[in-house]
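Justification of resources, computational component.

The compute hours requested in this renewal are based largely on the per-chain cost of generating structure records like the one below. Each record pairs the submitted sequence with a full structure-token output. That output is archived, and it is also reused by downstream analysis tasks.
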Amino acid sequence: MERKTLGKVLVSCICFLALIYALASMDRSNRLHRDDTATMAPQSDQTSRSNHPSAPQKIMYLTFDDGPSKHTQEVLDILDQYQIKATFFVTGADEASFDLLKQIHNRGHALGIHTYSHSYETIYSSIDGYFQDVEKVEHLIYEKTGITTHILRFPGGSSNTISRKYQAGIMSELAAECEKRGYAYYDWNAENGDGDPAVSADALYETAIKTIKGKDEVMMLMHDGAGNGNTVQALDRILQELMAQGWEFRIIEESDDMPIFHHTIAN
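The structure output for this chain reads:
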């Protein structure tokens, strides 16, 4: 074979081998890319979920003041029907109902302090008078449930002005003293209006729904005291509407993550 012909054959062979190698390299690169994509896809999805965690749009803290009383059992039963948990700020007003404290705790609700006497004159005449009353109901809760609680609500709320009658500036002092002693107090930003026990069940429903309008985080004030029979009558209807609106129900917890619900102190 002539040298020129042999050279052409060799060049053709080299070009052919180079083409085969290039095609093989491209195929390997494509396969690696597909493998990398398959491996990274779940991690990418996880990162996306972490950056955009699903969070409830509406959070509701249902609270009941002034119990336990003859109405507390009914309130607990209605809450159970809807598998909703609430927070009960309790007093020592009805000794016959003290055993309900254990039921409240055992059913997964939270217990808070609302003072033992609920007497404005007793609790708002002095710092010592207030905390003596607080400690009395705190001991009652422990006796009946075996737990201690450091959440409380001032009778009348931190914004009450009736306390001026007994001591000027005491609400400001009590708010500061609560923090020093490790208590957290909670007011509210919605209510059903049952502070007046004469208000009808229909009116309680309307007030509850009206006062949550436009809010995404609500601390709802209600009462389960001896005079709050209409609250029981309105509760089922209120809960049905809240659930239909998509609220998530939570209890108050002793946690730094709890939102703050404080009124403007007026005394």
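Residues 29-52 have pLDDT under 50 and may be disordered. Residues 84 and 249 are 6 Å apart (CA to CA).
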